[in-house]
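Reopening this one. Same input as before:
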Amino acid sequence: MDSAVLPRVDRQLLLYQRWLTERLATIEDPGHRQLLRHFATWHQMRRLRTKAEKGQLGRSQTNHTKQEVTQAGAFLGWLAARGRVIGQCQQADIDAWHTESLATRRPSQSFLRWCIKTGRMPRLTLPPAVITQDPEPLHQHRRLAILRRVLNDDSLPLRARVAAALVLLYAQPVSRIVRLTIDDITDDEATVTVRLGDPPSPLPEPVADLMRAYIQSRQHLPYASSRSSQWLFPGRQPGQPMNPVSLQVHLRKIGVPPQRGRTSAIRQLVLQAPAPVIARALGYHDKTATRLITEAGGSWSRYAPGDHTR
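Same output, byte for byte:
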């Protein structure tokens, strides 16, 4: 596919379809198997195909979808052990299912909502989503010290230094960094910009020089797939970006905690500019930026986005 010999299809979507076939074959109850097949075909596959049309799927997206099927099958088996089928499910069953292990069983909610929406089970109430708190961010002085070392220490791997700069300066999650392409980087010899949102963000020196050097070095990475790939951080498999988990490992090896560093960076940014502006420029949702500015104690809560010159 990467060489245009075969028509391009989404690899993660194909892998999920193969996994689903193998998973359904292990389910003994024919009613459960048919119900899960309908759920996967008419709900999950439709959702995944829509996302694949907009861009290649990431492994985390299909992994979450697998968890939904696994927990849906576990719920059907658990409910059968209580002597009920899905159409006889009661509120007490829903509450008991989530009480035993909420974090593990939460992926089943997608299946339960689908069953309620399609009339396969009574209209029951599911537990609300739990908002997880961000880990304790780095102190501002610590973040800047790590950034200074990343930018100045030539003994560190160039790829990890560029990724670290995007985390510590622009608060980018690793899962989004690996989806960047060469086309997202613009260099007019005077300024280097990276398209994280709208408008593209300029890279200050020496980050700009670091990015230029990294792009030139991509042709010399130790695997052939990187030479024709458009991914900024190409993976070892043709046509695929780098695994986010692998990039996290590289960052931790050079002393950069990805999540804490990102949280520290975004909180500092929303203190310096209005949350809607930061959200647009860095690809964040407005609600996320607003929540972060509240946590950081900022004063931009009443700022109205848009062109103020009109």
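So the earlier flakiness isn't reproducible anymore. For the record, The longest helix spans residues 30-54.
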